[in-house]
Amino acid sequence: MLAASAPSAAEGARVFQRCFSCHSVDPAEGHVQGPNLAGIVGRRAGTRPGYSYSPALRRARAGGLVWTEQALDHFLADPEAMIPGTEMSMPPLRKPRDRQAVIRFLQTTASPR
Amino acid sequence: MRKLLIAAAALAAGMMAGCGPAAAQQAQYFEVPKGGRPHDVAAAPDGTVWYTAQRTGKLGILDPKTGRAEEVPLGEGSAPHGVIVGPDGAAWITDGGLNAIVRVDPKTRAVKAWKLPEDTGYANLNTAAFDGRGRIWFTGQTGFYGRLDPASGDMKVWKAPEGRGPYGITATPAGEIYYVSLAGSHLAKVDLESGAATVIEPPTPDQGARRVWSDSQGRLWISEWNSGQLSRYDPKAGTWKSWTPPGEKPRTYSVYVDETDKVWITDFAANAILRFDPATETFQSFPSDRPGANVRQMLGRPGEAWGAESGTDRLVVIRY
After folding, report:
1. Distance CA B131, CA B125 (A)
2. How far apart are CA B81 and CA B51, in angstroms?
């Protein structure tokens, strides 16, 4: 029996349409409603310059949260449960494959210089 | 299956006046089922108040007399954003999770959904308004707006002229439809027949227009997330005017105009609902009694302004 293949970045780009209205991943662009997510994987939370983070995200930053793959997976599964008070109103991404796909896609985005 | 819950209603003792005269109004809070994160509200004709439980995919129905909240599941994958009262007295919902316009019958609780066309893709449906001809217009934040005629089932979706961002939408008393673009920082007027949208640029660049509401004269009031301003556009004169709420770096999220043409806004930075009197150009503040209230929308009926505290799982009403 063949194991299901890991989701591709292209699959993640499609799932990311749910996020696109509030987040850019173009390093040349600024912030939209939410912060620019280019190069977010591995970055400390709440540190993208020029964005006014919510008190909840500022607390997460002070607590040392880093957006590892695991942390992003937890957050996307239930943002409010992981960071109570987050202003991100997106409903949870309940399918693990969708979350893996988005994270894979985010890994392909380049950090701004 | 419907779920009944006894919700506690708490009276807030005394209100604070931010920068206007002392408030005689009182705020009353209603707990609704935990975890739903109520996003939008609508005051229903039968005296109940509807809200979208975005996180749990339900339409909530609160009876303010008893404090009881009932929730109607909207379907697998539902994540409702907006809810309004239709001309048929039903709840009309923009459901981002289902990518559909959803109607809930207030008597039978029957749920009916109109999916967006397959080729539209995911629209991140946001807000809706009826045009006075029985058709519902809606916005999709990924860069769409559209129209559904419930009588025929005909649905049309158009790409927004400047891409992603369509958020709040409103109808004027004459039935004209305007929407605002959060990412595009503009107001747009929609031609009711051709569907063409005409962009109206505000004088403040990058203001982040999030929601829009019409007053009795057809003037458009706009809440600006980025600039923090409350702005008014007069279509007849073609003029703009803006006011900045009190406090440091206001983050103005929602706007609603009541039957007396007072303007209600919510400010995330101040954690407050504010009422603006255009005649005196003053704001009156109604801070929440809990931190992180995050009221994302308001709507009401004569004498009552309702909001949903998405951050505390409560509804709030200010009677005036």
Report:
1. 18
2. 9
**Is residue A90 within 8 Å of residue A18, measured between CB atoms?**
yes
Strand partners, B85: B91
How close A7 gets to chain B, by Cα (Å)? 19
- Predicted structure pTM score: 0.87
Q: Is the dihedral of CA B93, B40, A21, B161 positive or negative?
A: positive
Mean pLDDT score of chain A: 89
Closest CA to B314 of B95, B34, B44: B34
Percent of chain B with pLDDT over 70: 92
ipTM value, please give it: 0.72
A55 touching chain B per CB within 8 A: yes
Kind and range of the H or E run holding B297? strand B295-301
**Phi, psi (degrees; rounded to nearest 5) at B80:** -70, 140
What is the model's pLDDT at position A112? 65
Who's near B85: CB < 8 A, 6+ residues apart? B42, B43, B44, B45, B50, B91, B92
Q: Which of B298, B183, B196, B277 is nearest to B232 (CA)?
A: B277
Chain A interface, mutation test: which of B51, B54, B81, B124, most A Cβ atoms within 10 Å? Answer: B124
Distances (CA, A) of A97 to B125, B237, B286: 23, 53, 44
Angle between helices A69-77 and A96-107 (to 10 degrees): 130
Asked if B249's CB is within 8 angstroms of A21's CB, the reply is no
Residue A68: pLDDT above 50? yes
**A32 part of contact set with chain B, CB < 8 Å:** yes
Superfamily (CATH H level) for A9-107:
Cytochrome c-like domain (1.10.760.10)
Label residue B14 by pLDDT band (50, 70, 90).
very low
Residue-wise pLDDT tens digits, B191-207: 999 999 999 999 999 99
**Which CA distances in Å does B265 have to B75, B203, B245?**
32, 20, 9
CB atoms B183 and A33 under 8 Å: yes
What does pLDDT average to over chain B?
A: 92
Please list every residue in chain B whose beta carbon sits closer than 8 Å to the beta carbon of residue A22: 141
The DSSP bridge pattern shows strands B49-53 and B38-43 to be: antiparallel
